[in-house]
Amino acid sequence: MSEQHISGAIIKRLPRYYRYLEELLTEGVERISSQELSERMGVTASQIRQDLNHFGGFGQQGYGYKVLYLYEEIGKIMGMDRIKRIIMIGAGNLGQAIANYANYRKRGFFIEAIFDKDPDKIGTEVQGIIVRDIETLEEYIKLNPVDIATITIPKEQAVPVADRLVKAGVKGIWNYAHVDLDVPADVCVENVHLSESLMSLSYRIKNQK
Amino acid sequence: MSEQHISGAIIKRLPRYYRYLEELLTEGVERISSQELSERMGVTASQIRQDLNHFGGFGQQGYGYKVLYLYEEIGKIMGMDRIKRIIMIGAGNLGQAIANYANYRKRGFFIEAIFDKDPDKIGTEVQGIIVRDIETLEEYIKLNPVDIATITIPKEQAVPVADRLVKAGVKGIWNYAHVDLDVPADVCVENVHLSESLMSLSYRIKNQK
């Protein structure tokens, strides 16, 4: 199967399929029909067939999808067999919450180091990982490959830290700071702007009434 | 100006305008041209004019936009003058991180109560708010109006808690649990599925290389 044929719209839906397939695996389900998956996910069976037939993993009519095979294929498409090593900038509540989020580890992501500038935090442990001094960031990256850096520090500090990450060669930033980061075109930034999500919800509730 | 004329695409962009306008207010800027705003935001001046002219707030050619007026108008469109009262289900790291996020308060959202089922957390304080027993949830909602309930508990517990919230009359759920909630059509759910965001980033990094 060639990845070139997968549209952006399907790519957006894949994490959700992945989540449902993971649940099925946890329940010990080895195969599932598009009809059953449709009922679980609340999308049409036809949509599921259109999306998942790109990945193979289905046998003859009536056999259904092989859950593990599809799960692994989607994981590969999403880069989860290769993009694994995460460092975190910020050991506050949000950083700790993300580090604790066991799901990421199950999915093959590993938080390998945590940095902070607060002397009270440096040297303490978060999920068994010792918090390092942010001053040692470049030194760490020189010695250890990093796929993704998560930023959970206030926006004023986030901008210079992002510059340092980019200069050190990091190509993926998962940004929780409430600011748009200005990075070169070959660096990917995924923003999680929580308050914008809250504003969207507010808008929808207001217009629902 | 009538809200009916504002397209969904503009609505999606408004929280970002709101954020930049807020920054300008903090800096004491009273008015700004579409050109200057364009340079800050990294979008074309023509896009800005098209978007913001829906809201008025601009004078004659060369005057620029009135920052405070636009800020307030966008806030009203997004329902932020009315959707204010938040309760939180879950006083763990993620719940605490969200409660600490001072931005929300600045924007007019108020976290009014926090609930948890953990006896070690009940009675403790998070941001000056005492953590209540989740068993008292219905009683609280009966006595206090609630616009939005934030869910930051594991997915197994999130499903029955969402049912309880809906039965108690809550119409807005900000869901961080890694599960799709099944709610009636008049209840709005905004999902923040962090691991799906991480998967998207992983995909983009992989395809960038």
Task: Give structural notes.
The structure is a homodimer of 209-residue chains. With 209 residues, the first copy, chain A, is α/β, with parallel strands linked by helices. Chain A has 2 domains: 3-77, Winged helix-like DNA-binding domain superfamily/Winged helix DNA-binding domain (Arc Repressor Mutant, subunit A, Orthogonal Bundle), CATH 1.10.10; 85-197, Rossmann fold (3-Layer(aba) Sandwich). In chain A, 45% of the residues lie in helices and 17% in strands. Chain A is built from 9 helices and 9 strands. In chain A, helix 8 (155-167) links the parallel strand 7 (148-151) and strand 8 (172-175). The longest helix of chain A is centred in the first third of the chain and has 19 residues, at 8-26. The first copy, chain A, is globular, with a radius of gyration of 20 Å. The mean pLDDT of chain A is 89. The interface between A and B is large, with 57 and 57 residues.
How would you summarize the topology of this molecule?
The structure is a homodimer of 209-residue chains.
Chain A: H1 8-26, E1 31-32, H2 34-41, H3 45-52, E2 65-66, H4 67-77, E3 85-89, H5 93-100, H6 102-106, E4 110-116, E5 125-126, E6 129-133, H7 137-143, E7 148-151, H8 155-167, E8 172-175, E9 188-191, H9 194-208
Helix pairs in contact in A: 1-4, 2-3
